[in-house]
Amino acid sequence: MNNLVYLVLGMAAVTYGPRLLPFLLLTDKQIPKRLDAFLKCIPMAAIGALIIPGLFSATPEMPLAALSGMVFTLVVGWWKGGIIIPVLGSVAVTYLVLLCAA
Amino acid sequence: MTRQVQDAFKAGIPIFIGYVPAAIAFGILSKGCEITLLECFLFSAVVFAGASQFIALNLLMTGMGPGGIILTTLLVNFRHFLMSAYLSTRMGKIAKRYIFLIAFGVTDEVFSVLSFKKGHLSKTFVFILQLSAYSAWVSGTLAGYILGGFLPQVLTKSMGVALYALLLAILLPEIKKSRKALMLTIASGALNTLLIKLDILPTGWTIIVCILVIALAGSFFITDPIGEELYE
Fold first, then answer.
1. Which of A55, A32, A85, A21 lies closest to B82 in space, CA to CA?
2. How many domains does chain A fold into?
3. Cα separation, B207 vs B167, whole angstroms
């Protein structure tokens, strides 16, 4: 028990630290143009790296299922926009594919 | 309700809906790892970091000690350093005391929504968004732990896709508008896939390397300030 609480506190510290530090260092500071251009590219770079290989491991025993779900999100999100339907739909499609395969 | 509050709830509801299934999956998994309800709650309420919580459970099961798990968590979550760096430039003037709260809620999905919100980010908007994410994460975790046994296994497995779908849905309007955004996204995903295949970096580092390399390349090759196009 105690062991796990220490683990949680340790994990919290190393998670919170990197999230906080940049705010302390950069807020209200004048940022050079070069650095600003770099920072502005971070969202796309981060999301791209998070999604593309990750989705293959979302349903490890059958990557095709998660892939189908994401294709649903891509198609509906692209043509219709919104977030709720693309997200819930992707879970539904993944579920159906897993169900059919089982 | 002011406009800002309405906007914030509109942005927060999809995050809530995306987080609940993922959190349920975490609750179910931690019960399977023979963790108590309180410990499971503490994970989500105190750490509040999706991916690394799942990784921590896996590592616990392999018998790894706290030191190794904490180090892995640091590596996995260090990407938030870069995300916070970006967000701090968008917050405008803000009292120091709010920074400590806001920093706690910088998750991948909150960051993604905030990055594509136009104009300066008000603290009201940020707080409501983060609160939606946090309440979904904590309540979903508890629900999963307590009620998880009643859900069909196939359904809980398919919930793993929700977070990726959420990120993709948040990103889509931007890459529809800007070819540069599309190129950066695909380049980063391709690089990460390659790095993972090569298997030369520890977990978590590949994403950090991708963000650094692709954002650096983006800032050089894209001479036009990408910000003008994306964030005006």
1. A21
2. 1
3. 15
Nearest to B157 among A41, A81, A98 (CB): A98
The answer on B189 and B150 residing in a single domain is: no
Which tokens is B158 given?
């398919």
Structure confidence by residue, pLDDT tens digits, B164-221: 998 899 899 888 888 889 999 999 999 999 998 998 887 778 888 999 999 999 988 7
State how far the Cα of A39 lies from the Cα of A36, in Å rounded to an integer.
5
Does B166 sit within 8 Å of A38, measured CB to CB? no
Out of A5, A23, A91, whose CB is closest to B159?
A: A91
Closest CA to B56 of A43, A3, A19: A3
Q: Which domain holds residue B24?
A: 3-159
Check CB contact of B190 with chain A, cutoff 8 Å.
yes
Give CA–CA dist B50/A61, Å, rounded.
21
Spatial separation of the C-alpha atoms in residues A77 and B92, rounded to whole Å: 31
